[in-house]
Write a structure and sequence with these properties.
By secondary structure, the protein is of the alpha+beta class. It is built from 15 helices and 19 strands. A hairpin with a 2-residue loop joins strand 12 and strand 13.
């Protein structure tokens, strides 16, 4: 174990606030001893850098799936006092609102497995994926402005979904304070033609089922609308080139203004602006546009997949395809908490981390007020994925938890170690049929490039960061 770490309990470790000059708070890292031992050293460097941000309170936090990222580690969380603190694009990421939507169906594995190739091939043809792919819709300048503000609600209003899709999204698929005038023309150009596309990198669309014995809380699973043997689908995508360009634009601007703001961070990738400054507010409003476009992106993909499912399986007459929930990963959101007995609004940066609200929170759909928020955790394309629910015990992390398994190999390392074509063949032998836009990119996403998702999720639960409800087994995958 690293000599600068103090063990708080079996699944929580702390780096003291005097470890590095400029730290305003200690840093806390969650995970089993094995997970902590195998984290890359950059995680510890980056999370202690995060602790130097103005306005940060309590702790700089890193989830069990943490690995090195830009500025913040992936899995990094920071709660910032908006009145005195900053907004940091590095604490949000380039793929703003990269997130996951879980879809539940009443189809069974027995019904779908014989048609899995046909289903995967059809989705691959009709849902654009890969670098620079087009989208499901092409929007005029005016319509794109509307979509930036309305998110999923724009889709439903225009016939691409149903009201329940809105209800079952974080922020109801439409975050406030989105202002298209703060978005550059270059971001508009990159985004307008990619709406309704899977993208590239670690994005995917996966067909899964729930094996017997893989529901761990039947009561909560029933409320979430899932059961043993049923087919579920996960859509993992974000704001694509649109969000990437917004992050790029504002990072460039912020980097040139650090002297003006009198900031001197240990890492230039933490370039920030005071949240209440004009520059900080401009970025916040542009970022919220990207959050809404990512919500819309996943909604359009869900709508297209629903059409394909009805085409292939609709003859049974009572086919159901419902959104369980849609969660964000890369955001900075204003959220309300009780701190030392007082109500506070905090700016919560979650970079590769998922919100996990407990039962009773008014932000949740009425359906989930007694269960807590559904928390969707994707594994690698060769492993299980998980569904958890939010718990009150996650208050220390401002109701944040893991978002996936987390990398152990860089993309370059994975590409050197794995062969994409061989990987696809091996996966099919194991019962997972996969289609990809690039075998080269597929090699970067091999299961061996990621942590053991079972250990990551178990660590999150044992640290109090949510409760495991169910796990999913993949049978088909579209990999961008």
């Amino acid at each position: 174990m690293k000599n600068f770490l103090t063990k708080v309990n079996d699944y929580t470790f702390e780096i003291p606030g005097d470890y590095k000059k400029g730290m305003n708070v200690p840093a806390r890292i969650y995970g089993s001893e094995n997970i902590i031992k195998t984290m890359d050293s950059a995680v510890f460097e980056q999370i202690t850098n995060v602790a130097t941000l103005p306005g940060i309170i309590n702790y700089a936090l890193c989830m069990p799936d943490g690995h090195s990222g830009y500025g913040f580690p992936i899995g990094g969380v920071a709660a910032i006092l908006p009145e005195t603190g900053v907004i940091s694009p590095g604490g949000i990421g380039f793929d703003i609102n990269c997130g996951v939507r879980l879809i539940a169906t009443n189809l069974t594995e027995e019904e779908v497995k014989p048609k899995i190739r046909e289903l995967v091939d059809s989705i691959f043809r009709h849902v654009p994926s890969g670098v620079g792919s087009g989208g499901i819709v092409s929007l005029s300048h005016k319509k794109f402005d509307e979509a930036m503000v309305e998110g999923v609600q724009w889709a439903v209003k225009n016939g691409f979904g149903q009201d329940s899709d809105i209800e079952m999204c974080e922020e109801q698929g439409k975050i406030k304070n989105a202002d298209p005038s703060k978005v550059s023309s270059k971001a508009r150009e990159r985004g307008a033609e990619q709406i309704g596309s899977l993208g590239s990198g670690n994005h995917y669309l996966e067909i899964q089922y729930i094996k017997k014995g893989h529901i761990f809380d039947h009561q909560i699973a029933s409320v979430f609308g899932i059961k043993e043997g049923s087919i579920c689908i996960m859509i993992h995508s974000g704001s694509r080139g649109f969000g990437h360009q917004i992050a790029t634009d504002y990072l460039k601007e912020f980097s040139s203004l650090q002297k003006k703001f009198n900031f001197s961070f240990p890492d230039r990738e933490l370039a920030s602006a005071p949240f209440l400054s004009e520059e900080g507010q401009n970025y916040f409003k542009a970022m919220n546009c990207a959050i809404n476009i990512a919500f819309l992106n996943r909604q359009l993909i869900k709508h297209r997949v629903t059409e394909i499912l009805f085409d292939l399986f609709g003859k049974k007459g009572d086919l159901k395809v419902n959104t369980v929930y849609d969660v964000c990963h890369n955001t900075a959101k204003l959220e309300n908490f009780t701190i030392n007995g007082k109500n506070k609004t905090l700016l919560i940066h979650r970079k590769g981390a998922t919100r996990c609200l407990p039962p009773g929170r008014e932000e949740l759909p009425l359906k989930y007020r007694n269960t807590g928020q559904p928390v969707i955790i994707g594994g690698s394309m060769e492993s299980f994925s998980y569904l958890m629910c939010g718990t009150e015990s996650a208050s220390e992390t401002f109701f944040s938890t893991v978002h996936g398994s987390g990398r152990v190999l860089s993309r370059h390392q994975a590409k050197s170690k794995f062969n994409g074509k061989s990987l696809a063949c091996d996966m099919e032998k194991k019962g997972i049929y996969i289609k990809t836009a690039s075998y080269s990119a597929l090699s970067e996403e091999a299961g061996g490039a990621y942590k053991n998702v079972d250990e990551v999720v178990a660590s999150a639960e044992k640290a109090g960061l949510g409760k495991i409800v169910a796990k999913f087994t993949p049978i088909g995958n579209i990999k961008a």
